[in-house]
Specification:
128 residues, 4 helices, alpha+beta
């Protein structure tokens, strides 16, 4: 009796493990999913955060900013660096963060080299 019970259990487990699950999705749901994907393909930038490490103004400020940008790239190779101009400043901002908490994690590491760095809200590219 015990052997029969074990044999039936093994057969049952084998048949369950080889069973295939089949399901069908309503075409309306598939259309909604397709529309959602197409809509997000058109979006280039979303609200997010970056870390501003420095800003320069005055004579030769562009060259200073470019040099600082190259220095940051060498010290932090995994973080994107962006140089922007907003009169009268050349600003160097780094990273693409969806939340302030994500930015804060890198901020503490960056502040060891750039003590005046701080988090700023900005439109970011999430595709990079």
């Amino acid at each position: 009796m015990k052997k029969l019970w074990i044999t039936l259990s093994v057969v049952l487990l084998c048949s369950v493990s080889f069973a295939q699950v089949r399901y069908s999705v309503d075409p309306k749901i598939q259309q909604i999913q397709s529309d959602y994907i197409k809509a997000w393909e058109k979006v280039d930038k979303i609200d997010g955060y970056r870390i501003q490490i420095t800003a320069y103004s005055g004579n030769n400020s562009r060259n200073k900013a470019e040099a600082e940008r190259a220095s940051f790239k060498a010290n932090f190779p995994g973080i994107g660096v962006y140089l922007s101009y907003s009169e009268p400043y050349f600003k160097i901002r780094v990273g693409n963060y969806l939340t302030r908490l994500e930015a804060y994690k890198d901020l503490k590491r960056i502040q060891l080299t750039y003590p005046n760095a701080y988090i700023v809200p900005e439109k970011i590219s999430f595709k990079e």
